[in-house]
Design a protein that fits this description.
Blueprint lengths: L2 H19 L3 E8 L8 H17 L13 E14 L5 E17 L6 E15 L16 H19 L7 H13 L16 H9 L4 H14 L7 H12 L2 H7 L4 H19 L3 H14 L4 H6 L6
Parallel strand pairs: 1-2
Antiparallel strand pairs: 2-3, 3-4
Length: 309
């Protein structure tokens, strides 16, 4: 075989591997700009396409994902206003809004998905020049838009890995932490300890040893609990409820922690659905804990305290 053909085959092989590796996340991206109709829609169509290609085609890990292993996710960006300067004049190509990030993982041997993330980030400001390219770097500063998207991609991956093995997401959660550290000089909000309930606290708290029980919960709840529902529903449910009891340990150290709010925005409906199908005696203790750590929903937990109909 001549060298030219060998090179051609090699390029095809490595190109194929890169293609497979670039598809860890299967993410739907939606950009809504209805609140600022004065801006040409083509700009936001291009933004949506650019983010979609960036998320779905970037090589985020060194692992090879089969098609059925891809992490299902979505990002919904709601652009609410154009940024204005001190004189009230619109600043070109600068916007404010929210970004809602969701991810899920399939329960083993079923058609049911558990949510791993469901969070609306209200500290989302960004600059976007029509048709600009997205470039991610682990060692150099990025635009706020790129940094935010990359941060949530690593959160999505890290949480997914944590659900399959104890502390399995360390590598990727540390990459999210690195993005936060690199973004401290960005003028846009969401990165600094001087703020509240933001990306800084999300990842710093999650990696804090004080919240280790929450990471343990993520593994026990999903891999040891839900993943055996198909073969041992009662045993799996028992593991899930036992894992939820560890929330009391977190509450005792950090009551009203932001990370608990993030957890319940993701898991509350899922947990309530499971409680609906559980006998009163089996769920009494966990409901008491849930009412304590998620007090705003106390009346809803009370309503679930009786036997299922």
């Amino acid at each position: 075989m001549n060298m030219k053909k060998i090179i051609s085959i090699s390029l095809f092989f490595f190109g194929f591997i890169a293609l497979v590796r670039s598809q860890e996340i299967k993410c739907n991206v939606t950009v809504n700009s209805n609140q600022i109709p004065q801006v040409e829609k083509d700009i936001f169509d291009a933004l949506q396409k650019g983010i979609f290609e960036f998320v779905n085609n970037t090589v985020w890990t060194t692992d090879v994902f089969a098609d059925h292993e891809k992490i299902e996710a979505s990002m919904f960006i709601n652009v609410t206003e154009q940024v204005k300067d001190g004189q009230g004049q619109v600043v070109a190509d600068q916007y404010r809004g929210t970004i809602t990030v969701q991810s899920r993982r399939r329960v083993y041997n079923s058609t049911y998905d558990c949510q791993l993330m469901n969070y609306q980030d209200n500290n989302f400001s960004f600059s976007y020049i029509p048709f600009q390219q997205f470039y991610y770097s682990e060692t150099s500063s990025m635009s706020n838009l790129t940094a935010v998207i990359a941060f949530y991609c690593y959160m999505i991956i890290g949480l997914d890995y944590d659900s399959f093995s104890p502390n399995g997401g360390d590598v990727y959660l540390n990459k999210a932490l690195n993005i936060v550290n690199m973004s401290q000089n960005l003028p846009e909000p969401g990165w600094k300890a001087s703020e509240t309930a933001n990306r800084y606290y999300m990842i710093n708290d999650y990696m804090n040893p004080a919240f280790k029980p929450l990471r343990e919960l993520m593994y026990d709840y999903h891999r040891l609990g839900y993943d055996i529902f198909a073969t041992d529903l009662e045993g799996g449910r028992k593991v899930v409820f036992t894992s939820l009891k560890t929330l009391d340990k977190i509450w005792s150290q950090r009551p009203n922690a932001f990370l608990l709010q993030v957890f319940f925005s993701t898991k509350r409906n899922e947990i309530m659905d499971l409680l609906k199908e559980t006998k009163a005696a089996e769920k009494a203790e966990v409901i008491t804990i849930l009412k304590k750590v998620d007090p705003s929903q106390g009346s809803k937990y009370d309503a679930l305290a009786g036997d299922p109909q």
